[in-house]
Amino acid sequence: MMTDEVKLYGLWRSPFVCRVKIALNIKGIKYEFIEEDLDNKSAELLKYNPVYKKVPVLVHNGNPISESLVIIEYIDEVWKGVPILPQDAYEKAQARFWAKFINDTCIPALYKAIGSHGEEQDVVEANKQLQFLENELNVKGVVEEVLGIELANKDKFPKIIEWSDNYIKCQAVKDGLPPRETLLAFLKNLFGKV
Amino acid sequence: MMTDEVKLYGLWRSPFVCRVKIALNIKGIKYEFIEEDLDNKSAELLKYNPVYKKVPVLVHNGNPISESLVIIEYIDEVWKGVPILPQDAYEKAQARFWAKFINDTCIPALYKAIGSHGEEQDVVEANKQLQFLENELNVKGVVEEVLGIELANKDKFPKIIEWSDNYIKCQAVKDGLPPRETLLAFLKNLFGKV
Questions:
Q1: pLDDT confidence of B124, banded at 50, 70, 90?
Q2: What are B68's strand-pairing partners?
Q3: CB–CB of B73 and A93 under 8 A?
Q4: Given CB atoms, is B63 within the 8 Å cutoff of chain A?
Q5: Do B93 and A101 touch (CB under 8 A)?
Q6: Which terminus of chain A, N or C, has less C-beta within 10 A?
Q7: Domain containing A55: what range?
Q8: Which tens digits make up the pLDDT trace of A22-50?
Q9: What total number of domains does chain A contain?
């Protein structure tokens, strides 16, 4: 049996990297994690992702793969065991649609609301996008604690909150996320609130 | 044997819609095409794609799917026969990476160069992105004829041009693209050149 060599180039606080860690954990794959310094990117990262020069990059037996959703599809196809995407073609299409929605629409709207320190119109827009999600996204947590604004609550988004609460109970997810206190300290520093 | 009911809500000149038409043609799937009026979108489009309200939307036996790349993955999974994506997991990941690159990076750069009527810095940027593509994209054609600028040529991008020339020779592709003269007339009108 061939031994797989799996390396993940990442950044501890990137949600796109955490997503890949969680996928690897779900499959029970052993991997080496290489923390990148974004101000001084490694030669390997520049070689493996010459188009975007971004993390995450998964390197499987020397073959690099970039873009978190592409990586997750690859992990799901190569390693059997617990499936990540639904098996039914239509349900799989729905999962891909919502994953793309989170990437292209939700995350940018949330980043904008965070970047503007909770400016009302940006929060309204983020809420509008979250309204489309019923059971896909984990947004409650440290961001709200840092900014002192509420992006999602049980009354407005009961299904997201329920999904989120269940999601973070899973061991594979817990192991893929940074420690809450570390992330909180980083964000407080970033946004100038102590 | 169950008869499939396949409907495609689209717009004749949208490259995202043409892409789905080509996938359906490759699989030999019969479908009903519904041309949308973007100024007066149909109730069906709004119902089937409430998030983006955009074409293309594929409706298969009453189940709607949005986002062209998600639709193509679905078509490839549901209808066997000629495969669209590579079978090998790593090659498939590469195909997904480049498809995402074309969507997120190349097409926006090209639209920007077109929208600014070929402003130098926008053409340089589009060329920079095209440089990453060796065999994925069909960019040569009516856009250049309308604007009188050259975005891609045989010296700079020999592999793209070769791929493009071969791509449009395929009958499934030809049948999925709008007539050249119709598209040319539309774009000339749009950009005010006759």
A1: confident
A2: none
A3: yes
A4: yes
A5: no
A6: N
A7: 6-78
A8: 999 999 999 999 999 999 999 999 999 99
A9: 2
